[in-house]
Amino acid sequence: xxxxxxxxxxxxxxxxxxxxxxxxxxxxxxxxxxxxxxxxxxxxxxxxxxxxxxxxxxxxxxxxxxxxxxxxxxxxxxxxxxxxxxxxxxxxxxxxxxxxxxxxxxxxx
Length: 109
Hints:
The protein is of the alpha/beta class. The protein contains 6 helices and 3 strands; from the N terminus they run H-H-E-H-H-E-H-E-H.
């Protein structure tokens, strides 16, 4: 769904179900304009992933959007504290999401 929604805004896309699959991309020399993480990516290992987000230096430089469920208040607070991070709560309005992606993309250019 996100790929379809973001098609007018984003040109290149990497889709990964787990952070381990996406992690090598952050260590390449290619520029990454934005990373979008769905809280489903964390599964039951939020603390473990949060620690990785804190330690992975290349990821700290990339603007990040975290999509969280309303019941994930603790996650929201901690993720908002990460460098260059924004949390958006699901469900969200597609136009609000696209506006956020555009705003972040324009700042990173």
